[in-house]
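New to this. Help decode both lines:
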Amino acid sequence: MTNTPVHRRRIGDLYRRSFRETRRERLFIASIAFFVAFAITRLITHAIRGGATFLGNLSLHGQHVHHLVWGILLLLVVGYGWMLQVDTGQKDSSLLLGRILAAVYGVGAALTLDEFALWLNLRDVYWERQGRASIDAVALFGALVSAGLWGGRFIRAIVREGLRVSRVARRGGRRRTQAPQ
């Protein structure tokens, strides 16, 4: 798909049609943020374990601060933000705030669930066999906020648009017109 203003406008139209209901849009944003944050978190932890010196564990007074802590703090911020947002009656400002809070929620949930095994064992088992419980928790939660479920209409619309654009491109940019019936 070429990146022309017409195509960007078409994608924007598809997005608005797919997410007429703001609740569905927030769920989609949260799930995308969740999966992206989880992937980045895993990449960073593997890099640290592999000896990446530019990345390091955060410690306060010699105590390692797990990313679970940052996830919990983000979830607390989102909870408080959503309490402030409920029933304000200000549709425009609430829409942007809802989107931001949905993304922050996804990130907080990913950071928290990535160390789910720490909840269960009350010790750091991230790289041990018991650490697998974190992956299981992420998979379960990810299934609940699945981008395919909440954003299915939008994803299908994007695929259809991509196929339509590729068909037009294969025909040399001409649109086929149908004869009147």
Q: What stands out?
A: The beta strands are 59-60, 63-64. The helical segments are 5-18, 22-49, 67-85, 91-113, 116-121, 132-144, 147-150, 152-170. The CA atoms of residues 22 and 95 lie 8 Å apart. The chain has a mean pLDDT of 80.
